[in-house]
Amino acid sequence: MAGKLQRQKQEKKESLVDASYDLFLKKGFNKTSIDDIVKKANVAKGTFYLYFKDKSDVMENIVLRMSSRILVEAYRAADERGCDDLVENIIFVVDYIVEYFKRNKLVLQMIKRDFSWPLIREKIDELSPEYGEALEVLESFLTHPYFAGQDPDEVFKLLFLIIDMCGSVCYSSIIHNQPDDIDHMKPFLYGVIRKILKK
Amino acid sequence: MAGKLQRQKQEKKESLVDASYDLFLKKGFNKTSIDDIVKKANVAKGTFYLYFKDKSDVMENIVLRMSSRILVEAYRAADERGCDDLVENIIFVVDYIVEYFKRNKLVLQMIKRDFSWPLIREKIDELSPEYGEALEVLESFLTHPYFAGQDPDEVFKLLFLIIDMCGSVCYSSIIHNQPDDIDHMKPFLYGVIRKILKK
Amino acid sequence: MAGKLQRQKQEKKESLVDASYDLFLKKGFNKTSIDDIVKKANVAKGTFYLYFKDKSDVMENIVLRMSSRILVEAYRAADERGCDDLVENIIFVVDYIVEYFKRNKLVLQMIKRDFSWPLIREKIDELSPEYGEALEVLESFLTHPYFAGQDPDEVFKLLFLIIDMCGSVCYSSIIHNQPDDIDHMKPFLYGVIRKILKK
Amino acid sequence: MAGKLQRQKQEKKESLVDASYDLFLKKGFNKTSIDDIVKKANVAKGTFYLYFKDKSDVMENIVLRMSSRILVEAYRAADERGCDDLVENIIFVVDYIVEYFKRNKLVLQMIKRDFSWPLIREKIDELSPEYGEALEVLESFLTHPYFAGQDPDEVFKLLFLIIDMCGSVCYSSIIHNQPDDIDHMKPFLYGVIRKILKK
DNA sequence: TATGAATGAGTATTCATTCAT
DNA sequence: GATGAATGAATACTCATTCAT
Asked: Which residue has the higher pLDDT, D123 or B22?
């Protein structure tokens, strides 16, 4: 029954990731010790090093997983509407993510504090296919007829810049209310996105 | 000669700030210890605590001072050109800052890692008039005839968002070459700024 | 006007003692730093060392002064009653002190934590005549007709032991409610004193 | 062989307690640093925190253990004499303890400086049954026929007060020779105890 | 006398990492 | 694989004391 053992093994790792996630959110990355993690995960200290190189290793895991999850979730929600207007779909996705961050300030804080949103792509390149689905979402935007005839690289930069800007605005407005709270920034932000995407 | 003592005192503080600055750049904020700082500054450990509450206290000092300095420098350079076109002036300022960051990657890394650009305003409000000149730069943009008739708050948000976006793009492209290197991003970025500012 | 200077000088010392007293009570002896003291006293750090060797030096000053003050105060109150019964007078004095400690738990804690009541005599021997009045009180008991014919040394030991015991019981019962609260201990304690003094 | 590991673990703890004991005696509690302790105990600094919360934590351990030990030892010695007279037995126990303190001035100093003898009961309540034997000694006095018919609470107060007084007198006379050395205080002290216990 | 800037040894505590079992 | 006792370097922060002014 190798499967059972595999599952048990995987359970320990899962348990460590889950514990880390909770603690990073609650106490922040720096103030969370490996000791905290293994205690919460109910495994021995040495076990941590069986699965991860160090704390950052777990963190990367988490950020990647979460970012990917949110993006895919947002895309699916957009897809279900059955709307064909790409600009509106992008804004829908952005809004979905903004709303997610409004509800999950700590996630935003965690991601922003230690990693920059767009870095995800670097990692995805490395770690595919585990996070392939997120890549597919990006692809589906890039190959949309709306951008027909444009250099795909340029389009990618455009999307990248939009995501980047949104992340930045979210962080400033949701966490620090600068220059205004997110609900007052939203119409403004979406206006800018429309301008950027206008052909 | 009370002045001499005051000067000596100021020198110690300066020395601590300088040492901190160098070390934060070289080793990063987290990996720099107070011990490192005082050793490099050639002062006793206790002296550090005479002038600063903790490491973050020095950091805030540094970031504020540098950000203010760069902004003012960029604005002056723009001013000297004697060009009246606001949009072009803004792009000039942005470009000045981008070029600065290209030359000083570590500064960018330092600022971005621990503080968000636009937060500076919060601090300036507190610490004026020491950093009043930076504020004046912002004011001069806000009150430019180009924005005549627009809600100043809206204009501020616009400028804020542009600065924010630039900082983010700089960080991604200069530090991580994502999605492309900064020189390939620049025309693109400035195009977006023009779109955003277009009336 | 040497007098004025003398007074000013004395004021600094007074100010240091007062500040120390307040701080020892509030934060405890160990957790009070010389820095705390000079800040509260509004004098420069160096000034402290002009008047005291170290922290303990101030403490001894305080304990001595306070102990002497309480004892004399208690004795005077007893004296005013015009009662001749020595045993009752001693119990009256003890009760006066007990009541004082009930109202000033912190004083009790302070004295007991760092110095033992009866040590005062050692100091009085050294520092007379500043605290001579307290000595007189002791004398007046020692030479009371009640003890006529007894070895004065023996009488002193008796009184000493009583004071000692009272201090100990006060500390245990007032601070720790052990073995019972002070009001339940009092009749008991006074009974024991009567037994001890009975001829 | 799980036992071996357990034993080694216990040895480390023992080693820390022993080292602390020696150092507290030699240098006093306040002047002993954790560093001193671990160096003497030949364990790593972190190991200390594996077994104790802080310095006071070790101290409580030590005081409790020693007090209990001395009391039990004294009681056993009294028991072996086979004498039935309670008053004489109490005086024997007291004398045993006094003699112990005469031989171990530093122990007295240590105990008295930081903890009050009778507080031990509070702790014993918490930590039984490890120190149950000491409790039994107290019980055996409380339930002695000599006190038949008296309120046990009152009897406890009486014993408490006697112990308290003895501790205080020991401290003053053994450590400070005040008001006289212990050998001159002893007959006097025992006389007082007899008076107190006389029905 | 009085000041207060400067000192730097001293201290408690944390924590990533190892390794024998 | 899994454990958890042991490590000890690292670190932040305190504070009594000095001394030039």
From this structure: B22
